[in-house]
Amino acid sequence: MRSIRDMTRPLRRAVAKRIFNFPENWDHATAQRYEIAAARGFVLEAFPRNYAHWEAQPADFIYYSVDDQFFCGDTELFAQFKRHIPNRRCLEIGSGPFGHLGQSKGLRNRVIVDPLIDAYRDIELREFGKTFFTPDIQTHAVSAETRIESLLDSIDGLIVCRNCLDHCDDPLLVLQNISDYAATGCWVFLWSDIWHLHEPDAGHRNITRSPRVMETILNGLRLPIVRMGRAIGNPVDCVEFGCISRKVA
Questions:
Q1: Which residues have a Cβ under 8 Å from the Cβ of 97 and sit 6 or more positions away?
Q2: Which conformational region is residue 77 in: left (phi greater than 0), alpha (psi within -120 to 50 degrees), or beta?
Q3: What are the structural domains, with CATH classification, of the chain?
Q4: Which of 49, 117, 145, 246 is 20 to 30 Å apart from 162, CA to CA?
Q5: Which residues have C-beta within 8 Å of that of residue 3, sequence separation ≥ 6?
Q6: Would you state the torsion angle of the CA atoms of residues 122, 32, 44, 162, taken in this order, to the nearest 10 degrees?
């Protein structure tokens, strides 16, 4: 049975096109306007609940768990990750308004790259007087395609890039940057819609229909897959791709 979200998708697309004056195809400036408008509503609705949950967590809390979309119940792999991650440098590319690393208070050396990170922080501080993006987190308000020299071969803990690639001008360049930032042994959590089965729009782009192509690209970038992740979307909407990789020499 189709959900209300699925049934109303054509109407919601039409309304969004009118509100944001969407062109028919990918347009980065339009995508950025859409992202910040959507984030404002999401923050107003979800921030109090998410922040209260975060405050209730212990000091060593990290966002990931053995039952999440990446580990899928693999207790041995999760134990390896937990042994590896303490006191290492971690990076998130495309955090959105909350992010995974912003909520991982147990990680001490965190870096976030998102062109809208300053805007997200400002919304949270203006509306609630607090934010997940605290001063101890190094932030870069630049595109994921921007090569940040200080990050090269320096991320030895984790790189997470979730729901980002299909929002970028050049997804393959973003993957190249991820490989360049990752030191040998670094874990990489990757998830994205890679093909939109209805149609892409001004805020989303297609990458490839084939998960096998994504795997080939990651192998070429010395990011072989350790485990495929769990599908989280509706397969009638998109082809998605998610995995755990680790950088090899």
A1: 39, 42, 43, 47, 120, 123, 124
A2: alpha
A3: 22-246 (3.40.50.150)
A4: 49
A5: 234
A6: -100
Distance CA 248, CA 218 (A): 11
Residue 81: closest CA among 59, 66, 69, 93: 66
pTM above 0.85, yes or no: yes
Residue 229 exposed, middle or buried by CB count within 10 Å (0-12, 13-18, 19+): buried
124 is written with which tokens? 């949270």
Question: Which residues, 6+ apart, have CB-to-CB distance to 14 below 8 Å?
Answer: none
| Listed residue (26, 30, 27) closest to 38, CA to CA | 30
Q: What is the pLDDT of residues 131-180, one digit of tens each?
A: 999 999 999 999 999 999 999 999 999 999 999 999 999 999 999 999 99
Residues near 119 by beta carbon (within 8 Å), at least 6 away in sequence: 36, 39
